[in-house]
Amino acid sequence: MRSTTDSNLISFLSHAKLGQFLPRLLAAAGVTILLALSILTFSRPVHGQDTAPTPDVNSEGFAFTVVGAGGNKQIYYRTIGSDDATNLSNNKFNDSQPAWSPDGEQIAFVSDRDGNNEICVMNKDGSGQHCITDRHTSDKKPDSSLPEDVHPFWSPDGEHIVFVSTQDGKKQIYIMNTDGTGITNISNNVANEDQPVWSTDLKSIVFISDRSGNSNVCIMDFSGYNQRCLTNNRTLKRTPNPTRTSDFLPFYSPDGTQIAFVSTRDHNLEIYVMRSDGSFQKNISSSLGDDSQPAWSPDGQNMLFTTTRDGGSTIYIMNADGSNQRALTGSLKGDDFDPAWQPLPPNPDATPTKVPTATPKVKPVFTLVIRTPVPPTETLTPVPPTPITYPPTFPPPPAHDCPINTTSRATSGISALLAAPQPFDWCACVSFYESQDYSQPQAEAVCNCIEKGGTTAVCDPQSQG
Prior knowledge:
CATH topology of the largest domain: Neuraminidase
Distance between the termini: 80 Å
Oligomer: single chain
Largest sheet: 4 strands, antiparallel
Mean pLDDT: 74
Number of strands: 27
CATH class of the largest domain: Mainly Beta
Structural class: mainly beta
CATH superfamily of the largest domain: TolB, C-terminal domain
Strand order of the largest sheet: 3-2-1-24
Helix content: under 10%
Number of helices: 3
């Protein structure tokens, strides 16, 4: 439900020189990367738009974005198996990234009708269009110095919308009520966090993060806590590296057991599926073109996706295992992307979302814990030590000399002593040094030899150091 024109993907393609993978889509979209330098107050202006014709909308259809010949983006609806599509946006603005409400009655989307991108909502037939965040500019033209809001996704209980905003300088993930109130930053860190998708049980949100360099697929609790990444694309110094893999555009399966995502690990864009814990990652699209934007069907049996295998950007459908891939769009003039399958009724077992609280920015704090000793429950009588006679006494050593002449250089002395046949098990020649850097050997060495049977013999020095 998110456009491949997202600035993270654009930035990656630019660094990786992969622009040839999506030439027509990216050129037609005309995306501007917005750098947020200030904060605006959210309000909810109403934009009437009731002129779109009423389509035949049912659970076998999908919304998607079309870049027309004039270069502007409009949201369409099409029934699967039909060649007819209806323009839901039906205006002069750029509308994209459709996201269905869980009951299938409304669509959240992104629009630049007030200047910068903001989150808007319309009924499923295109009527009642109004924006719930406010990113207006003075002349209603894009302004890269001001924030933008993108990538809306409805909570499965229909109570909240998760989205991405640059209002705090970097891309962060926010939650708000469906009327635009109660905006809360839940990711709240120094990395760029993007492309959030809610799990159907409402307990977690999958998203992407550049916290380790290239983008990774990560998950967190819906409150923003317990953040961890499922893929590992760490780079040197945690800076983007176009020669390394990036993973993005994740999407939960309806049963929450799998996550589809897009990866560059095969040197083009391919759709992968993994378990929700990050294990068993598998390429399921495997084409020569670029496959992107996976979107599961409500029953989990199929998947919509965007591909460039036919030249432009086209929406395909395939089985959930990647088989039976076939085109659904392509007859319209322009490029098609952002597929969003109309949902089935809400999951009756879903737990309603709580009122979200902001995730605090916490720096590591190291606290010295002083433990108070616990008094013993009984008096312990110390056991007196066993007397030890020192130094120990040995039988008098046998009368003999060292088997060879030793030197103060341990290597030659030890090698020679180890080669000596009898009667010693081993001998060690130790040199004593006066300086700490061991550069001035003392002109004296002591050779200690341990004789078979455990007795010792002390030999006189035989050489000078």
